[in-house]
Amino acid sequence: MRHLASLFAAAAMAAVATADCTDVQLFHSYSDPGQLSGYLVVDSGITSGPSQWLITNGGQLRQQSNIYTAGEEFPARTGTLAWLTEPCRGDFVLRTQVKPVDNDGWGIVFRATSRPGGFDGYRLFFSAEDHPGAWLHRCQDGVWTELAYNPNPGITLGDWQEVELRAQGQVMELNVNGQYVFEALDDQFVEGNLGLLCWAMNPIEWDNLLVSPPLLAGSDPYADAVLQAEIQPGNNGNSASDPAMMVGAPDNLYTSMGGQCAENPGPAFAVFDMGPDSEAILDGPGADLEVIEIGSSSGGVDENYLVQVGDGPDGPWTTLGTGVGSSTFDLSVIGRCSARYIRLEDLSTATCNSATPGSDIDALVALHPGPEGVVLPPVATLAVVDDALRLSWSPVGCTQSYMVERLISDTPYPGVWEVVVSTTDTQLDLGPVPYGPDALGIYRVRSVVD
Questions:
Q1: What is the per-residue DSSP string for 409-430?
Q2: Second label for 419, Cα 20 to 30 Å away, from 198, 219, 255, 317?
Q3: Digit-coded pLDDT (tens) for 74-108
Q4: Which residues in the chain are classed under CATH 2.60.120.260?
Q5: Quick check: helix, strand or coil at residue 139?
């Protein structure tokens, strides 16, 4: 029996707190300029404004305005914030590649709430100038509190590096390029929104932002191997025929599969393994798989292909759908809970006479990656109905039942949980609203797969 949990706070004093945060996966590859719609940009800086957030031709998120406010004292520096518009987060693991070229300030705001001129929440801040190092601060009502500091976090200007930020309970940990930087303990803010911060940075680039629940944090969202491939020459030869270019994170390096061209000796296809360690694409809210095809967003041609999923590297294969250019696919349309093996077949005839014939595949990305056999958590809400508490949650495909638990001790983290009920329903009446100073209750709902 395997579970993934969603946590929700209930009933304090004479009010009920409803959690708006979810534990679903969030991933931005920045392959499409339309991904800017996933952000709400708020500029606090005045000098050199407004900010300039854009998707580059190489598929990165770039901010290239030197926006700041003259006279701002450290640590009260905000510049511009690109808030993620997806649901907010409580516990999470965030990974991203970042290339700071300028030496001023940048970072990540999390468990935060925007307010005029700033925010309340936590801020991870990097600088290579007047306050060099990595800093973790808490900002509340304009008051800044230092929680952690490392003068040498291992960031190199002008180079790509990986930043990992973990927030679980009161523990917050930073790693850079796989090396531990610092840890802090604080429980003032337990959930809130995420944002990318730039202060006087001209420029800085971000790529492959991945935010996941802690229980899924070890999952790799990219295809790990090409198991079989028939890459075809097209009509005049193929200068991008290496199948390895389709493995790993989106990087604007691609394989031209060859299309359905007159001179091809056979069909052009490839079979992918999403993870030799039983990693898979999980069925979650909305789309589950993104195929990144280098097309019109990079000045080329959007080309079409067939996507199939299988139980093994040799099939049998079930058609998931067809894509044109970079496209997304939903496992629920074919009733699948997960998929580890993916087969792509090139259907294009648009570029048969070019040096890069057929669909140009950069990467396969699991938008909800995780171990095979695990299902994502339900999204739950807590409401007052006729002066009583009602916990309800969204149905989750491939789930046999749901387990509702209540936190009865919060030390040591993650605490001791008491089973309230195991049920196939999608709501539970918890009784009258509790009042008083000891009334706070925390519940979680788990999807159960036998």
A1: E-SSTT-EEEEEEEESSSEEEE
A2: 219
A3: 999 889 999 998 777 888 889 999 999 999 999 99
A4: 225-371
A5: strand
